[in-house]
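Let's practice the habit of predicting before peeking. Look at the sequence and jot down your guess about where helices and strands might fall. Then scroll down.
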Amino acid sequence: MPGAWREGDYVNSKKVLSLTYGASQDGSAHLTCLVMDSMTRNVYHPDQWTRKLMRLYYPNVQMVELETHRHNFQMPRAGQPAITLEATSPEIQLRALRLIYLNLRTALYSMDMLIASYYDKRNRKNEWQINL
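Done guessing? Here is the structure:
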């Protein structure tokens, strides 16, 4: 996404939604993991960046892995188990899954709008030839 102002900084952002499929016993493919990857980088200071990863495993949607990487910070992960929702209360699980749902819905809507604007721009590029 082109630059935007966030918290007083002019940043570029990139959001990626990736799906991982595995083969089942009957040979068909099924969803095993959904990864939401978000990265922001300061336009005027490219060494200042933040990357956030969220992995949602299916069918156990309570198994959510969260990772945050920054230019000056990295979560300690060596030898530690993944952060999961299983050990939290049902209210916290519900709030977290609602937040995941909203983020996923927003990501899908944004991707749909970007694809639609690309096709609109591509179709308008040669419109002058049609009007001759």
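How did you do? DSSP finds two helices and six strands in the chain.
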